[in-house]
Amino acid sequence: MTADHSPSTVRFTFEGRDVEAKAGQTLGGALHADGVRILTRSFKYRRPRGYTCGYGACGNCPLTVDGLPGVNACERPVEGGEDVRRERGWPSAGADVFRAADVAAPLLTAGFQFRLFTKTPWLAHRAERVMAWVAGAGRLPAPHAAAAVRATTAESRDVDVVVVGGGLSGLAASLGAADEGAAVLLVHRGALGGRALARPGSAGVRDDAGRSDRDAALALARRVEGHPGVEVLDGTAVATFDGVDLIVVSQGRRIAVTAPSMVVATGSYDVPMSFAGNDKPGVMLASAVRRLMHVERVRPGRRAVVVTEDASGYEITRELLDAGVSVTAVVDPDARSRRPALAAPLAAARVPVLAARPEKVRGLRGVRSLLVRGADGTRRLRGDLVVVCRPERPAEELRWQRHYVEAGDTQAPKGSPTAALSDTTVVVGSAAGLPAQTVQDSSESGRRAARAARARRHDASDTQTP
Amino acid sequence: MSAPGVRAGDPGASYDVVVIGAGIQGLSTAYELAKRGVRRIAVLDRAWPGGGASGRNGELIRSIFSSPEWVGLFDLSLRRWHDLSAELDMNVLFSPSGYLVLASTDEQWANCERDHAYHRSEGVDSDLLSHADVLALVPALNPEIVRGGIVQPSGGFAHHDAVNWAYLKAGARHGVEVYCDVTVTGLTTAAGRVTGVQTSRGPIAAGLVLNTAGGNALDVNAWAGITLPMVTSRLEMLVTEPLAPFLRQGLAALALLGYCHQTARGEFVGGTERHHVDESRSQNSTWDLLADMATKWVSLFPLLSGARLLRHWAGTVTQAADLAPVIGSVPDVDGFVMSCGWVYGFMGAPGASTLLAEEIVSGTPSPILAPFSPRRLVEGRLIAESSLVVPTGEDPA
Amino acid sequence: MSARSDRRTIVCPCHDVTLHDLKVSWERGYTHPETLKRATALFMGPCQGKYCAPALDDFLESVGAAPGAEDSPARPTVRPPLYAVRLGELADPDGESA
User: Fold this and answer.
1) Which of A371, A389, A407 is the last residue of a domain?
2) Which domain holds residue C63?
3) What is the pLDDT of residues C1-18, one digit of tens each?
4) Domain identity same for A258 and A289
5) Domain range for residue A169?
6) What is the ipTM metric for this complex?
7) Is residue B342 in a domain?
8) Domain for residue C96, yes or no?
9) At A295, which CATH number?
């Protein structure tokens, strides 16, 4: 790390010692910069786990902060003065004697608890008490921490369009709806712009002004914050229900939102790969690597192996090299057949591209090397970071929930939820399976949502008898 | 196929018994019938086994009720629970950790005292607990909501999926044929007798049709021309992330209209009711109940304020005005037996299925099941059971 | 992929479900996403499927059970909440509900 003369640093206590963080970093970023690679131990086998997805969706980084367990390190900004501890692991998450469970794994396969002690109920009961103690791992909210979580207000809001997700497409849709005259409520967790903030390099695919995703997102965020028709809530969308379009929790406020139209801009999830040892600290999804580099300003590792199933792995390799991370190789099963053109620039940087598949990560407490298998056999690629790049998967949960509400039941006939949704639920961007949707198109979707809201209100007032 | 023991392919053309609904009542009764030598039994379900209330319930088990009818049935069931894993050769994670009924008011406490005396007289294990006793058992409780309670040491909870699968597999070993993704669309009748079912895969003839269709049971009754004063209603529950053990027993909190426990994985699972019955057939969960549950559970266990909610779901049941199950047949409709109206179906299934199967095979009515007959609803002989935590639809006093 | 390799391949980090677990459960007869979920605990941890859903997709494809068809849903029912908020954030602020 180069000398950093930024004026604000904050300090917190991590398992009894001081850690310094840059202002704006998360606990996950700060700990990574501090060299902490093991953030927790897994539930059953007590395997070491570390920074993996970067956006609170993998369960691998829960920390206990000021007595409150289950705080995702990758999402929690450092405020200063926190007491932070890892969960699970005795004597510590760093060195856990219960790792022995990993050795006993063949005996503990899924469903093992249904096959043990069937004929000896008293033994089953004792075993269950032990299991509960081990599973619970001493995690219990401290009384003061639990009390501090309580919501202080319960509010309701009635708007025309509620937009869930303030990434690139959500911002654009909010502006489109507001420009169409709708009262818009935008709900977003964290900094407006979402994961576009971690994409400073790519030329504008999505922005008609040709800006990078990050620059476009920052520009849209400024416009949203200044737009009188858009109210921004920094909070978490909890669920959609019949009669209450969205429940939001935001900084001690519990808000019930009703709105004739909803824009689902929940984005997408990175997709992991299946290979032996794929859960070890140092195996990260692409978004996590980008977040560390471009938002947390932390080098994700010293030496990376990039495993990719599409062009994105080549892009991220470029970013890693620019960030001072050496790249041992790009591993792409389809390198020869599909992406020879992408390999050429890497050759100039002396990064080999291997047509191979990842087979196994080696390393006891984190990545030391990755074994890959290609046509010419197995190779060992050394590194402390494995970057996994696969096409993203839409964050579909809210879309499904709207489908259930509109259909009346979770067990309503299935079929594609996009086909089933009414015109007052609009899905944009990668949540709709359109990761390259332009800002213009997202904005137009916002306009449609606004018009549908207006029509819905009009119908409702028409049917009201005087 | 969707679970071990479920048959691939289509059901046959005729069976001695066709069971509608592969929930715990259907699967356990089918098993008990097969155990007693009934040869051709088919269990049909429109979705996956245990997909209805049987897989959505609170998993609690007790027999400390206040009426002889309920104690008779549920105590037999509780005794079956203790031997169930051994008999079905699968660990259903039955945990006899105790079942605690919590009184928060003087009136509820007086009821506990009275009920406790009744339990002693019936030989049901039950201890009366003072305010201090309750807090000694469950220190995490909010003392302001504790007046006292009763605990049944031999009660507790089990794992609903495991129980459903265990009955399914045990039945299959005895020749029961379970088919999923088969929707029953009607009944075939002739001269006052039900002779079979119509399904999405064609008609099936049956010597006897058993209605264990849970939240859909009233539809099936209607096809048989049977209308009883029953409604379908929706119940909801939530589960948290795993926590260190803080609640060992199953717990019913009368003042909260709620029931809860902590699983072997450390997850807190609990459901509450409002004072009105939610007459809905939808399995969508509601904001009304989520807010109610969060508020009530946090008030009862303050530490839960800091616990992360993982899931919130709903399920449907059918219920009679007295909330007791409706088991048996009605006059003028032969070939048809119902076991529905179960609000406490999970805990009651091992007992009821045994008795019902015995009754069907032997032809001798079970005196323990007799009070739960459908006829009681028509003749206005509702069972008076006061130790329940589900609203009956009446306004509170 | 050997069974040994499958045992070291984690498809569900929340509950340490391995690829081996998934295969064995499928072979045992849990052949529906809803029953696979309950048999393995996939989808039941803090991520509620955000991380493990694609692993299930990959697996179903590998055993020839095409996900997403009309009658064979590719995932279990989506339940609230969208994100694991704490109960204290959802409870009524002024105490017990009426």
Assistant:
1) A389
2) 3-68+79-90
3) 578 899 999 999 999 999
4) no
5) 153-269+393-463
6) 0.94
7) no
8) no
9) 3.50.50.60
pLDDT (0 to 100) of residue B397: 37
Please report where in the chains the tokens 């620059």 appear, as a residue. A215
In a domain, B224, yes or no: no
User: How high is the pLDDT of residue A6?
Assistant: 52
- Residue C73 inside a domain? The answer is no
- Alpha-carbon distance B325 to B345, whole Å? 8
CATH of the domain at B237: 3.30.9.10
Structure tokens at A45: 């086998």
Question: In A201-267, which ranges are E strands?
Answer: 230-234, 236-241, 244-250, 253-258, 261-264
Element (H, E) at C90: helix C87-90
Q: Which amino acid is at B247?
A: L
Residue B221 placed within a domain: no
Q: Do B264 and A242 touch (CB under 8 A)?
A: no
Number of domains in chain C: 1
Structure tokens at B55: 């897989």
Q: Does B287 sit within 8 Å of A241, measured CB to CB? A: yes
Picking from B159, B244, B281, the nearest residue to A136 by CB comes out as B244
If asked whether residues A158 and A132 sit together in one domain, one would say no
Collect all residues of chain C within an 8 Å Cβ-Cβ radius of residue A397.
Answer: 48-50, 78, 82
Same domain (yes/no): A255, A398: yes
Q: Strand A161-164 to strand A184-188: parallel, antiparallel, or no bridges (unpaired)?
A: parallel
Residue C96 pLDDT greater than 50, yes or no: no
**Does residue A127 share a domain with residue A26?**
yes
| B4 at interface of A, judged by CB pairs closer than 8 A | no
User: Which backbone phi and psi does B45 adopt, to 5 degrees?
Assistant: -140, 140
CB-based contact, B191 to chain A, within 8 Å: no
Q: Which of B160, B351, B168 is nearest to B264 (CA)?
A: B160
| Residues A349 and A403 both lie in one domain | no
pLDDT at B100 over 80: yes
A334 and A373 fall within a common domain: yes
Task: Tell me the Cα Rg of chain A.
Answer: 24
Mean pLDDT, 10 residues at a time, chain A of 466 residues: 61 96 96 96 92 93 96 96 90 76 76 81 80 78 96 96 97 98 96 93 76 94 97 97 97 97 96 96 97 96 96 93 96 80 82 95 95 95 98 94 90 58 92 92 97 93 66
* C interface test, pick of B168, B246, B298, B301 with most C CB neighbours within 10 Å: B298
Does the residue A1 lie in any domain?
A: no
d(CA A26, CA A197): 15
Subunit contact A274:C85, Cβ cutoff 8 A: no
* Single pTM value for the model: 0.95
Examine residue C57 and state whether it is found in any structural domain, yes or no. Answer: yes
Please name the residue that has the structure tokens 């081996």: C20
pLDDT of A461 reads 82
Q: Which of A147, A173, A194 is the last residue of a domain?
A: A147
Q: Is B296 exposed, middle or buried (0-12, 13-18, 19+ CB in 10 A)?
A: buried
Number of domains into which chain B is organized = 1
Domain count, chain A: 3
Q: Which two tokens stand for residue A307?
A: 């495993």
User: Which amino acid, residue B181?
Assistant: D
The residue of chain C with its CA nearest to that of B145 is C96
Question: How many residues in chain A?
Answer: 466
Cβ separation of B284 and A136 shorter than 8 Å?
Answer: no
In the predicted model, what is the mean pLDDT of residues B152-165? Answer: 97
Same domain, A50 and A161: no
Residue B123 identity (one-letter amino acid): G
pLDDT tens digits, one per residue of C46-82: 999 999 999 999 999 899 886 554 455 578 999 999 9
Do A138 and A188 belong to one domain? no
Q: How far apart are CA A309 and CA B315, in angstroms?
A: 41
Q: Which residues pair with B252 in a beta bridge?
A: B101, B259
Residues B145-160 have a mean pLDDT of: 97
